[in-house]
Design goal:
HODM_asu-like; DUF3445 domain-containing protein; three-stranded antiparallel beta sheet; 10 strands; binds protoporphyrin IX containing FE
Length: 328
Amino acid sequence: MFTQNLDFKTTDLDTFPFPFRSDNYRYSNDLRKLEDVNLVTITPEYEMQVRAKRRLLDEQPEVRYQSFPHTMEMQWEFLEMVFEMAIQKYPQHFELHKDGDEWTFKNNILDEQQTFTFGDASTLPYEPYDFAGRHFHQDFVLMVHRDDNYYLEVGQVSYAALFSAHWNTGMSFNEIHGPVPFVSRNGDDLVDRIRRFLLGINPGEPWTRINWNLMADRWDVNYETMDVWEPQRKLVTAENAGKLVRLRVEEQKFYRMPRSNAILFVLNTQFLPLEDLKLRQEWFDLTYSVLQDIPEPMAEYKGIAPFLPQSVEFLRREDEKLKAQGGA
Ligand code: HEM
């Protein structure tokens, strides 16, 4: 059983990672060096999103959190990294007191405090990675480096687009991207090129990219609940698309972990209803243009084919209205 309230959307547009830079979109190696290397961010929706994330984790624990038993040391490395980042950036919101291996972490926004022994998982209510991740609104995926590839060995995923810890744990980078119609503008197959690029990431020099999708009346879709969300996509019309369809954007970050050599993959997922695009004319124009030009395999793969025409029609009508107002 799981629930989804649709009361969440990005309200601070200045922090919305708008995805489009030109008026058409194709897959590419679009990684850029990350400027602010600290992954912790407190948005106006922080508390709502963290509570929703925890609720989803509790409702579907097997689907949304998975780890291999041998990852414990890496999990502590992750906990230490995110807690240190949190206190560095937001000392008013987070505190970490260390007395040898006896640590106390405080989250002042949620009014929570936990004392535990660093390195002893039995002193925490969840595994260290799961516990630490529940204090931040992002999804966290640990890709372990082996045989020139990366393997998904720990995942805490609550805002998934065709993704789940349950479905993807144990898969390599290449296997995970198997279903993606991953060709660039000039027809190159991108999976191996990007995997090689990831092998070169250095500790302390993370990279970032933005991924996007459209969601019909939901904030995540995974294979395990396809029977629930699949029929909902057919309820979208040009009249209700402005509210029901959301531009769903993942700001992704990739960190090389200095001790384990794994890649930590962090996803900050934000949502903007199509009707809110009008708040920024440039975003409206780019999105309207990009959505008219999505190649069919990409629309099928992203799962947006059943409601893309209605979404474009909604934008076309809005565009007409805006032009009429502008010309009046
Ligand atoms: C290393 C960590 C990464 C993980 C764990 C990961 C995971 C995933 C997953 C689970 C999917 C959905 C696959 C499915 O449909 O079954 C996906 C899609 C995709 N990934 Fe990755 N990915 C990673 C890195 C990257 C990088 C570095 C890039 C590009 C530079 C990339 C580009 C894409 C693209 C373009 C898609 C298709 C998404 C769409 O069109 O909506 N991924 N990835």
